[in-house]
Amino acid sequence: MPKSKAIIIAKNLSKIYKTDVLETVALDNVSFQINEGEFVAIMGPSGSGKSTLMHILGALDKPTSGRYILDSKNVENLSDDELSEIRNKKIGFIFQAFNLLPRTTTLTNVMLPMVYAGIPKEERQKIAEKFLKMVGLSDRLNHTSNQISGGQQQRVAIARSLVLNPAMILADEPTGNIASAQADEVMSIFEKLNDEGHTIVMITHEPDIAEHAKRIIFIKDGKIIKDSTNHQRRRAAIKKEVLKND
Amino acid sequence: MIEFWELIKESVNTLRLNKMRTSLAVLGIVIGIGSVIALISIGQSSQKSVTSQIESLGSNLITVSPGSQSSGMVRTSTARKTLTLADAEALEKAGLSAINSVSPESSSRLQVIAGDNNTNTTIYGVKSTYSGIHNLKINGGRFITDSDYTSQSHVAVLGPTVVEDLYGSSSYDCIGEIIRINGQNFTIIGITVAKGSSGMTDSDDAIYIPLSTAMKQLFGVNYLSSIAIEAASSDVMVQAQNQIGYFLLARHKKTEIAKADFTIRSSEEMLSTASSVTGTFTSLLSGVAAISLIVGGIGIMNIMLVTVTERTREIGLRKALGAKKKTIITQFLTESVILTFTGGILGIIIGVATSYGYSRINSSNFTISPYSVLLAFSVSVVIGIIFGWYPAKKAASLQPIEALRYE
Fold first, then answer.
1. Cβ B1–A118 below 8 Å, yes or no?
2. Prediction pTM value
3. Which of A87, A140, B43, B295 is most open to solvent, judged by the fewest CB atoms within 10 Å of its CB?
4. Which helix (H) or strand (E) segment is B5 a member of?
5. CA-to-CA distance for A236 and B10, rounded, in angstroms?
6. Are residues B37 and B89 in the same domain?
7. Model confidence pLDDT, tens digit, residues B109-167
8. Same-domain status, B115 and B253
9. Residue B71 maps to a domain
10. Does some domain include residue B40?
């Protein structure tokens, strides 16, 4: 296996939420690495700490302790504005609730990250059109976000996540709010993107959806309890099958 | 940074999404700016008209009235009798360097009859110097002359208001006709040009007769109601006042200024008093208007705070996608400045229209100083920045995860 570049290096990440009376450990000394070109699903029951992990990986929140290196850049001690820039340039967000600007056209929505990156208007439009075409929404450029279906909205969000060619795509329950047929469509786009070399990190609690990923990290009570590749899982399944037949 | 026009366009689009709320927020600023503009303009035009009316009384005019200044508002009957014709004649003959001419005057309100009509008006006993000192012009006929004075003739010059009251029309040619004042017949010899009311005296509602006739035959008095004096020039007003003051003190055998039994006032003093009064009035009204502007600003702030709360998710998303604090602040400040700017423009239009309407109704002159428009303009923008700052800052400091979680 060729040695590939590390996109995420997480070392002893901990996140502790403190109130006056209570101390909640949401992440407990978590370490892992994700390399370029991987498609990783982070799974876990609710309250397991997977949302906290997603926020830290997305540079939306800072860990209480530990180190987080994203695309060779230390992230844990940056200012708010520096984090904004990291999110803008290195991370393509896809949210469960799509989070498109309401009453705004799909084209404008897709152009938004490029506005903050300071890309001139003509170029923005060209790039946005290209990615909307890629997700099959060329005929919906001037529809506002409330005029299209949930699945279409999520495809707009995917297009939006790609426009600045991020180091990774970070998807938080990307199929949580859409019908299953459309969920399959979204997942096939993810697979296609991964085939093209995009690194994808996906948070989900649905095993069916997680199966699309090549690697699954299981989290429970703030700790990684299992980290397996598709390859390993398949072998395990075969082993199980063989044992059963014996 | 987002390009300027794009930012404006985006903000306008956002504001249009909630038209009712936007227009109510703007209304506060419209009322504030509108009233500031209207009140400043109305104040300035009334100041102007008061000034021009006082100037029309006569330039370099000094008025000596009986009674001391220190006796205040209450004047005893003896205090009213301290100025005599002899005083005026002595002043005239004294050859004081700073004074030009002297006009002794005696006045009283009396009933006047012409045919079946009658009116109550002020009768001024005057000498020929009166018209020059008081800027009084003759429309038809002539004014009182020195020979009228010496011969105590029964002649009268009428103001246009009196002509209208007695003959039904101010253009009626009544010269040569007879009027009765207090039972005595007077022949009309002239009509004055209308000057308009100055607020204190109405030179149009007046009848001028020779001073000698007035004092000896009509009023039966031996004292004057005032002496009007024209200074040699506007530069020597103070000097003239001093000369007159010391001259009269000596004549009246008074040793101290505090014991003076007369009061000297110049038209300049009246002018500055009047303009300080209207100035105070203007600033008072503008102050009230400015308060309404602040209230309007608080309205803007309130709306912006509501907007920030409502758009928490949007702000969170923008920050997640890479918007920096400055970008968010700029976006929200732009919105609030657009609100106040629009309010400012509408307010200026309404303010100008109001003061124009006021000037038409009161037939006063219409003044809008570009200064007040500029002021209103910049104040509206500054209010947008000041009252938009806190909500914008609040929006910018939202943490993206808090904001994205917000439902």
1. yes
2. 0.71
3. B295
4. helix B4-16
5. 55
6. no
7. 999 998 888 899 999 999 999 988 888 888 888 999 999 999 999 999 999 889 988 98
8. yes
9. no
10. yes
Distance, in angstroms, between B323 CA and closest chain A CA?
Answer: 6
- B215 and B114 in a single domain? The answer is yes
DSSP 8-state symbol, B174: -
In this structure, the answer to whether residues B189 and B228 fall within a common structural domain is: yes
> Which residue of chain A has the CA closest to B317?
A99
Residue ranges, chain B, pLDDT below 70: 1-2, 68-79, 170-171, 196-201, 406-407
Kindly determine whether residue B322 and residue A113, on different chains, have CB atoms separated by under 8 Å: yes
Angle subtended at Cα B401 by Cα B312 and Cα A163, rounded to the nearest 5 degrees: 90
Q: Which residue has the tokens 């004292």?
A: B223
Residues of B in contact with A88 (CB under 8 A): 321-322
Residue A207 Cα distances to B14, B124, B392, angstroms:
41, 110, 43
Q: Is B201 helix (H, G, I), strand (E, B) or coil?
A: coil
Handedness of CA B246, B248, B250, B256 (dihedral sign): negative
Interface probe for A, chosen from B3, B6, B321 (most Cβ of A below 10 Å), is B321
- Inter-chain touch A160–B321, beta carbons under 8 Å: yes
CA dihedral A222, A228, A234, A237 (to 10 degrees): -50
